[in-house]
Amino acid sequence: MARKKKEWGIKYGCPIYGIAWPPGEHVYMCGGGGHGIENKVVVLSCRDGVQSEEVAKLNTGKDAGYRLLMHPSGRSLVCGMSVGGLERVDLQPSTSGEPPKLSLSQGDFKEATAGIGPVKGMSFSSDGRLLALGGEDGGIEVWEWPHMRRRLRWEASSKAIRNVDFSQAHSDGVLFSCDEGGACKLWSVDSGAEIAQLAAPPDMPRATFFRCKSAVDEEGRILLFTPLKWRRDGWIAKWRQEEDGSIHLLARSRKPVAPAPICGFELSRSGELMAAVTPDGDQIVIDAETLQVLKHVRAAHMTFATSVAFSPDEQFVISGSSDASAVLTRIARPPRAGGGALGLLLLLLALVAVLAALLLGLLLQYAAARPEEARELVAPLAPALQWLAAAEWLPPAAREALRPLI
Q: Domain containing 371: what range?
């Protein structure tokens, strides 16, 4: 009899499409499907590496949330609905440790967003004052939050916009977009003008882009991270933008990070880690510096994974799937080799100390056998040896061993 496949995570009663993990222990997910499957926003808690069942929920009516975004203030969620339009979910925090109370916003918000079509990409600026939307019609819109006044709209592609992201590395002055055709472009937030379009790596001429996220390195240079689909596999590429605005490919993963296209992707808040999920239900964590896979949970979900998020401390990832499950995984990231520049310096100092101890031991043996020759050899160092022989912090045995050399 065939063995039953091990099941991971916890089921939450509906296909999960969007996920957000703001500071704190509560994780928010949206999804649904109709035909007897509830459309809802789900809240669960993750504390000390333990994932809970559903602790709160909000029914979203006849339409399911397809994209989920947390406002930087942590007080509101925005759901891009599957049929079209937006829903704002207001959060009322509890002081007793209970999950926040959820309520759908009505009135002005509903009226202002009534004409918005199906949304596939959403992003808040870092200060929460602007909301960018990428539409199924290929348009990008920038809205003022919370009044929901549309500031700008432009036609970005003839294909649906799959992802749109504000670049915090550009002080929110640039938007990244990736469309269903796999094109990745940079746009001016102020004017909607195209700034650049990324070209596939030379050895991957037909590779397509899924998303673009940015970070700033230790030298203040802007880095871009892009998941790529090439020959049915998932890859990661890293780019650098120079002061003149030009963008150059720095590196790409030496081999596929996943044996399937990447369909969900996030960069951690520190910019040190990336997380991805695949249609096979895999969960992957990648080091942003080396582009090496740190964690690969194969078949974390039984079917298509849709979204992924980091815990605030970047020790865990959680992903959602169309099989209604969410899976929490500890990253267990290894320490940086040598602990960075400080670790390297300490390592070098330790090596110097070991070499000095070895040389001193050999010198003392030589002094025991040939004291006169040894004193002539170390004569230039006599003042330093006298100081060491008188140092109270040096063990008495070591001070006594130095006396034949003085």
A: 340-405
